[in-house]
Amino acid sequence: MRTYGQYCGIAKALDTIGDRWTLLIVRELLALGPCRHTDLRNGLPGIASNLLVDRLRELEEAGLIHREAAPPPVATTLFSLTERGRALEPVLQELSRWGVPLLREPGGSDTFRTHWLDMPARALTDHRPDQPAIALQLHADGNEDLVIEVKDGSVHTHAGRVDHPTASLTGPPHLLAATLLGDLDLSVAVQQGLRLSGEHEAVLRILPR
User: Fold this and answer.
1) In Å, how far are 28, 123, 128, 165, 176 from 135, measured between CA atoms?
2) Would you say 155 and 202 are in contact if contact means Cβ atoms under 8 Å apart?
3) Rounded Cα gap, residues 23 and 83, in angstroms
4) Integer distance in angstroms from the first to the last C-alpha of the chain?
5) Which pLDDT score, from 0 to 100, does residue 73 have?
6) Which terminus, N or C, of the chain has the lesser number of Cβ atoms within 10 Å?
7) Residue 121 burial by CB count (10 A; 0-12/13-18/19+): exposed, middle or buried?
8) How far apart are CA 186 and CA 137, in angstroms?
9) Where is the HTH hxlR-type domain (predicted)?
C-alpha cells in the first residue's frame, strides 16, 4: 500500500482512505447498509470489478469493513461497515457540504443514483418536531427511490419505497439536489419541472430555511 510516510494524522488517514473509490465505497455502505459485491458495483458506475475487490480487501485489512455470509436462502457475501468505518460519516457529511456549490449546475453526462442524496438528506432539520411523523419519497428520473422519514425531531433515510408517502418529489437530479440543499425554493423548483405530490407543507418541514 502506498504511504505518504508522514507522522501526521491527516497523512495517516489518507494512507488508509485516500485512494480513488475508497470513500465512495464507504458512502455506499453508509447509505445502503450491508451490500453485496453487485450492489456496490451498481452504486459505483465506472469501477472495475478487480479494483473493487482490491479496495474491499484493503478496507477490511484496515478494520473499516467486515464481510459475512448472508443467511439462507441467499448464498452471497455481505459487506458492512465496522464501528471504525461508520465513524467516517461526519467526514463524508463535511465533504458533501463542501461540495454543495459544485452541484449547482446540471450534471450533464454524469451518472447519478438517487441514494447519493442520502448524505445531504441526513443533514436536514425537522423544523416541526411537535408534528406527527411523515415519510417523503424522492425519485430522480430513471433511478431508484430514496425515503426520508421524519419523526420527533429526527431525520432518517433509506433506499426503497413506502406504500403511502406523505409527499413525493420526482424530477431531474439537479432539481432534487438544489431543493434539498436549499439552493432553490420549492415553488421555483416546481416551476422548473420538479413534480410534487402530496402535502406541500410536509416537504417544507425539512427544507433549509
Assistant:
1) 22, 16, 14, 5, 16
2) no
3) 15
4) 45
5) 76
6) C
7) buried
8) 15
9) 8-107
Q: What is the chain's pLDDT, residue by residue, as a tens digit (209 residues)? A: 689 999 999 999 999 999 999 999 999 999 999 999 999 999 999 999 999 999 999 999 999 999 999 877 777 899 999 999 999 999 999 998 888 788 777 667 888 998 999 988 888 999 999 999 999 999 988 788 999 999 999 999 998 999 999 999 999 888 998 899 888 899 999 999 999 999 999 999 999 98
Nearest to 126 by CA among 152, 100, 145: 152
Which amino acid belongs to residue 53? Answer: V
pTM over 0.85: yes
Q: How confident is the model at residue 75, as a pLDDT?
A: 76
Chain-centre distance for alpha carbon 153:
20
Distance (Å, whole) CA 16 – CA 6: 13
DSSP string, the chain: -------SHHHHHHHHH-STTHHHHHHHHHHHSSB-HHHHHHHSTT--HHHHHHHHHHHHHTTSEEEEEPPTT--SEEEEE-HHHHTTHHHHHHHHHHTGGGGSS--TT----GGGGHHHHHT---S-TTSPPEEEEEEETTS-EEEEEEETTEEEEEES--SS-SEEEEE-HHHHHHHHTTSS-HHHHHHTT-EEEE-HHHHHTTS--
**Residue type for 31, please?**
A
